[in-house]
Each structure stands twice: as C-alpha cells, then as structure tokens.
Amino acid sequence: MFSLVLMRSQPYRLCSLGKMLPPPKRTPCLAGFIYTAGRWSNKENSRTVEKLCTFSVDIRKIRRLKGWVLLEDDTYVEEIVHILQELGADDTAIGSILERCPEAIVCSPAAVNTQKELWQLVCKNEELVKLIKQFPDSFFNVKDQENQKLNVQFFRELGLRNVVISRFLTTVPSIFHNPVENNKQTIKILQESYLNLGGSEANMKVWLLKLLSQNPFMLLDSSASIKETLEFLQEQGFTNSEILQLLSKLKGFLFQLCPRSIHNSISFSKSVFKCTDHDLKQLVLKCPALLYYPVPVLEERIQGLLKEGSSVAQIREMPMVLELTPQIVQYRIRKLNSLGFRIKDGHLANLNGTKKEFEANFGKIQAKKGRPIFNPVAPLKADE
C-alpha cells in the first residue's frame, strides 16, 4: 500500500515595525533557489540538475512534485541510471522512472543493487524493467532489505509462484517490511483456523495460497483480529462450513472487518428485509456483501434500487445486486429499458453479474426481442 506525503508550506511572515511584508516574487522555474516554508531554502544542486537534464528528465515536473530532491548534496544520478541500463531500460523508460520517483537518485547504489538482486529472485530483467517503470516507488523503497529478503524466501517456501510474489512486491510492498516472524505467525493462524473450521489437511495448502493470492492485505492484520472475527461469526450462528464458504467468497477481506462493523451491517439488513436470524444467514451466504459493506453503503444501494422502481421483496430475492454500485445499476437499467424491460415488472437477475455476464445476457434478450413472432419462410396455415 502506498503512502501519500502531503506537504503544506507555511505562510511567509516577516514583521518589521508592526507591518507585514509581502512574500518575495516567484522566481522563474529555472532559478536555483526555491521558496519554501517561509524562507529561502538551500540552493539547488546544479550538478544534479545538469545530469538529470542529460538524461532528458523533466526538471520542472520534479520541482513541482518533489523539489526537495534537487536540494540534496549527495545524489547518484549516473549510478542509478547505469543500474537501470544494465537491466535493459531504454532512455525513455529511465526518464519516466526518474520523473515519477526522483528520490531514486538519493538512494545508495549499493542498496539499489541489493534491491535489484532481490527482485531478480522472482522476475526476469525484462519483466523487472516493466515493473519498475510501473511501480518505481515500490522498487526504490530500499529500507528493511533484510526483512524483504527473508519474506521473499518465506513466500517461495510457502509455495507462492514467482509471478504472485512479484505482484505483492509492487502492490503491497509493506508486507515485506514486516518482520518475517509476524508473517509466519499470521500464516500459522490461518492454517489452524482452516483446520479448526473443518478443512482438510490435503486441501489446506491450495486454500491458503488461493486466499493469499486474492488478498495479500490479510498479512497486515494481526493474528488476534483474525481470531476475533472468526469467533464473532461463530457467535452469530454460522457453522464452520458456512464460515469457510464466506471466507472463500469474500477472498479473505472478511478479516479486515471488525466485529462491530459486521454486527451493524447484520442488524441493518435484518431490519430492512424483516427476516429471522435463519433467513438472514441464508441471505448473507447468497450475498456476503451484506457483511462486508458498511451500513451507509448498503443503505445507498438499496435506496438507489428502490428509486428505480424495485421493491424490497425483489432485492431480498436477489440480494447479489447489492454488490453493484448505484451507477452500474442505473446504466444497466437504462439499457434494459431500451428493450422495453421494466424493473418493477421483472426479475432483478437481469441486472446481476459481471460486466461480461451482463452484456452476454443483454445480447440474448436483444436477439430474442428482434426475433419475428412467426417464421416468414413457412406458409401460413389456413382453414380449408
């Protein structure tokens, strides 16, 4: 997960004889000084600027987004460029990488080489260049390299494919900065939970690897929160097999919910659909989104369907439509309306499914609408 650093400059104030002096005029973008935090900062490193220009890097873009990099005394432009060139990156790719992640030039070349060797364990150079170009911040995050290495080794021993581990490195780099023992403990809890819920030893590895591939963010949760969520679901009357079913359908995102949020969603759904605990369980098993989405989201989606002419009874019969955003629902209803379909007279199943499934179903309805009511080739029957 990537963090956004929001920098706010403080107002410039210089008091003299009780008067406020205006801030200095803005300097041209090529000037060597930058006005920040109410004072003149250090001069830009002209050597850094010149070398970046040599590689056709847009200096103005760096000044606008991360100008502090240009103020650093120690930078390694040529060294970082050389490492990228060794991997096979061309000038265009290098320029794009340094513009998007200029802090790369303040990383130690030794640390970047270590990072390169680490990532090469799970992907080839050609693929590595593509990943660095797409996720430069993840690659040049060179802290905790010993943790990163141990975690890569652990995930490989666990049986995760290299392509999955490389995806983790780019999209969820924070799990590699966890102490490896933390990740091992979380995996152990997941394995024990699976067996305690009735899963078989033979299927456990496949289940675990699929769960991690779908949702690596689980590794950011504490083992205590995982246990708490499972115990809460059992208290709500879900059987072990039903909980396993929910975990598979929600791809492990269930662990990222707190019991209080789940309880609120359950209470809201029970009130809206006016059903018993048993009936609600069946609705949740058909549509786990009733557990996952917070009350405001569920309320918005139900209200959106009602405004389009649907009824609570229709939603209860086909709760999976609540997995769709109001915008998607409106778009699909307009398309169906163009064929004469009216939501209040029909079944919500026509709205359901992925984009591909909906378009395929819409095509069938459209073809059926355009079909003649009689065969124009066959002769008409007449009374003799």
From TrEMBL:
Domain of life: Eukaryota
GO molecular function: nucleic acid binding
Keywords, alphabetical: Mitochondrion, Transcription, Transcription regulation, Transit peptide
SMART domains: Mterf
Cleaved signal peptide residues: none
GO biological process, one term: termination of mitochondrial transcription
GO cellular component: mitochondrial matrix
Compartment annotation: Mitochondrion
Quaternary structure note: Monomer.
Family: Belongs to the mTERF family.
Protein name: Transcription termination factor 2, mitochondrial
Source organism (scientific name): Orycteropus afer afer
